[in-house]
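Researcher: We're teaching a course module on how sequence relates to structure. For the next exercise, students receive a sequence and then see the predicted structure as tokens, so they can try to spot secondary structure elements on their own. Here is the exercise chain.
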Amino acid sequence: MGERNLPTVQHGDGHGVPVRRGLAPLDERLSQPQRRCAECLRELRERTGLTSEELAERLGVDRTRLSKFLNGREVPRLEIATRLHRLAAECAGTEVSQAEAAEIRALMYAAVRVRNPLQAREFELAAAREELDHHRAEAIQELADLQQELHDERKRRQDAEDALEELTFGSREEIRVLTDERDAALDRIVQLEDQIRQAGAMLRLRERDAETLDQITRATDAELALWESSGTGDLAGICATVVYLRDADEDDAADRLIEQIVLGYPVRHVVSLAHELNSMSRFRESVMVEHGLVRLRRPIDLFRWLSGEDRKSEARSNLITTLANVAPVGNLVRFHKACVDHGNTDLDFDLQKAMMERSRELLTSKDDYWTEDLQNQLEAMRAALAERRP
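Model: And here is the predicted structure for the students to work with:
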């Protein structure tokens, strides 16, 4: 279904000013959740006061996709819906209503839950993120409250001890009261210190939960990007999608897909993707994949994959070279730490050799043990090579 063409308004000078076209009625075959979602999106569109062309441009989608959203045939990604909601508030001169935003997300989730489980997963992860952020904020506040109470109790204990020392001719009752005050503060301090240790542990666990959820979200984003681009999800489908987007002058979409694949897929698949793109003479895309891998992935992920590769493997050699060339210093240090922790001296040596061959310096202050350790190893390797030269 498309939009109905309305007449233009003629002014005295004879020029016609186009009137924003209305939307065709919704298809009666839409389910109730699809209808309610489309009606909500249409209402937001009306608030913007923009034409479909203008709105599509502001949202970063083509007009055909926008039409499908407004006619209930597709449900937009969360980021697009959020953009539309903010745009509607901006055009109306109001603030974004969080309650309304939550209601819109619920309508969109209801519309995709049955017919599109992949897209529904995006909404479920977003809800999990909100809940996790809420619990994390609570944990931070709880830890701050406990630390403040511990500070107060320590002061209370110190005040009682100071008063006892200054009490020269006090009665037994005064001494008893101050002693009880000091002992009660000491008991509470012990309790608080234990509670703070537990609260700190819970906060660290929340942080790890957030990291895990981020990884799951990135993998889901990658699959959604492939689905939206009609990719198959396998290596050939990913390559075809990247090439299609690049050749269609959709560079931002291609770059975003590469980043999502790098972050969401196993390292071995990402390495294979870089190799496949290189064999297709898509050198720019291949380099982007390799650089993204060493810059964005956790060093421990790279270490685990490299540890399982034969030392003569070309893919192993290429990744170590890329790691030595472009990885952030922090990633190099953490990779070195992983090598030492797991006793993989060969991998550690190959990384240091690659760094030295390319004159890669850490260029950072020796502010921690592992940075200093890696720097010392590089200096020792340089000194050993210098001794061998005639």
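Model: If you want an answer key for the exercise: Residues 127-217 form one domain. The radius of gyration is 31 Å.
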